[in-house]
Amino acid sequence: MSGRERPAGLREAVPGLRRTLRQLRPHIREQRTLIAGGGAALLAEVAMRLLEPWPLKWVLDAVVVAAGADLAVRRPDDLGTLLLLASVGVVVVVLLRAAASYLMTVAFALAGNRVLTRVRAEVYAHLHRLSLAFHDSSRTGDLVTRVTGDVGRLQEATVTALLPLLGNVVTLVGMLVVIAVLDLQLALVVLLVFPLFAVSGVRLTRRISAVSRGQRKAEGALASLATESLSSMKVVQAYSLERPMQEAFGGDNERSLTEGVQAKKLSAGLERTTDALVGLATGVVLYVGAQRVLAGALTPGELVVFLTYLKTAFKPLRDIAKYTGRIAKAAASGERIVDVLQTRPDLVDRSWARPAPRFRGDVRFEGVHLSYAPGHPVLRGLDLTVRPGERVAVVGPSGSGKSSLVSLLSRLRDPDDGRVLLDGHDVRDLTIDSVREQVAVVLQESVLFATSIRDNIAYGRPGATEEEVVAAARLAGADGFVRRLPRGYDTVVGERGSTLSGGQRQRIAIARAALRDAPVVILDEALTGLDGETEAEVVAALGRLTRGRTTFVITHDLDAARDCDRVVRVEDGRAREVAQARAAAPAREAEREGRDAVAR
Questions:
Q1: pLDDT number for residue 67
Q2: Which UniProt keywords are given for this protein, alphabetically ordered (predicted)?
Q3: Which of 208, 395, 415, 484 stands 20 to 30 A from 311 (CA)?
Q4: 98: containing domain
C-alpha cells in the first residue's frame, strides 16, 4: 500500500480524516435519522449550557442593587421571588441539559457504532475478495489488526472524542456570539488568544498524527510476528526458537511502546499549552472586564456571565486539544482501513460475465502466460488439453508452476495472456463464483476451521443436508473415526484442525471436496507427509472422490502418479507429456525396487 502526499488545511491537522469520512459517507447516510435526532439534542444541550449562568447574573445584579451599589441597574420589586425563580431556573436548566446530553450521546453513539460495525464487515468481506497475490504480499497479523484494532480505535474515537468535540465546537461558537453581544470590546480581547491556540494546536496535532501512524504500523508488525510464531509453535519449539522469537517480539514491542509514549507526550503538551492560554485569557478578561464594570459599561452579573462563558468556552478548547490527539490517532487507523478498502481486487467479473453451465470437465490451456512479478514469468505459452473424466498427473521441480497452472482453473488467478477453457468457455467470460463452485480442491495442508466437523464438511456446499454430509464423509472414509469421537459430527476441532491427526484432517478435507460434487478435482500434493498406512486410506478415499471426474494430481513424486492416465511435466513455463502413466507404472515400480536393493 503506497504512501501519499500529506493533505493541506484540516487534512494537514488531522491527516486522513476527510479521506476516512469520504469512505464512510454511504454508511453515514444510512443513519441520517439518528444523526439528525442527535443533532437536535446537541443544539438543545448547547442552548441549556448557554442559559446556565444567567440566573446567577440576575441574582447578582439584584443583590448588588439591594446592597446599595451605585450601578445603573433596575432594582427588582421582589428580590425573594427573583431568588426563588432563579434557583428553580438553575435546576430546570441543568435537568434539561442532562436529558438533552443523554439523548445526544445515545443517538450519536448508536449511529457511530452501527456505521463502524458495517465498516468492519465491509473490510472483512473486501479482504476475501482480494487476490492471492495481495495476501501473499501482506502480513496476516497486520490485516487482522486493521479489521479489529483499527476499526475498534476508530469506533472508540467516534464515541469518546468526535462527538464531544462536535458538541464543544458548537458550544464555543454559541458562547462567542453571546459574549460579542454582551460586550464587543471584551469579546475582541478574548479572540486575541485564539491565533496562539491555533498555531500551537496545528503544529502539535500534525506531529501527533505522524507518531500515531508509526504506532499503528508498529502494532501491525507486532501482531504479525505474534500470529506467525504462535501459529508455528511446533517449529518454534522443535528448533528452540523461543528466545529469538521473544527477542524479535521484544524489539517490536519496544518500538510500539516508544511511539505510544511519544504520542502521549505530544498530547499532554498540547493540553498543557491550552491550559496556559486559558489562564492568560482569564487574567486579561478579568482585568479589562473589571475596568468596564467600574466604568458602568458592564454590570457585575454580566462580567460573571462573561467569566463563566470564558471558563466554559476554554474548557472545550482544552478538551479539543485532548480530543484532537485521539482523533489524530483514529485518523491514522482510518487511513489504514481506507487503504484496504481502496485496494482493488485483481480478479473481478467482467460486465458481460454469465453464470457457468454444469461442466463435463473438458479443460484446455491455450498459449497461457502467467507472471507473479513483471519480468519473472512462471508460465510461458503453455498448452495442455485434458478430456472429461481424465486423470492427469502434473509433475515438475519446485517453483516450476504446477500449482500456478491449476490455480487458473479455479480462477484464483487469471492468465496474463492466452486462454483457459472449460467445456469451450473462456473462464474469464463466466462469473468467478460459478466457476469455483465446479472445482474441488484437496491441498497438502488440509485447512480446517475451529468449528464442528459437520460444519467443516458442509463448507464444501453450504446448505447441504445432514444426509449429504454423512454420505460425503463415508465416501472419504471419515465416517467411522468421526462417529468414534465423543461428540461425533458435533466435535469441534482445534484451530486449523490441530486436534485431529494428519490423515483424519485429510479425510475431512476429501469429504468437503466430495460434498462439492464438482466435475473438476485438483489434488495438490494431497499425499505428502502421510505415513504408509494412512496414505493407503487416503489414496482409497481419493480414488472414490475422483472417479468419473477430470482430475489434476499435482505432485513431485512419480509414484503418486501411478493411477493417472497421463503424466505431464511442467518445466521452463511449458508443459510436455512424459508418458501414459498406467503404462509406465511397472517400469517405475522396477526402478523403485532397484533403488531399494541398492540402499539395502
A1: 58
A2: ATP-binding, Cell membrane, Membrane, Nucleotide-binding, Transmembrane, Transmembrane helix, Transport
A3: 208
A4: 15-225+261-341
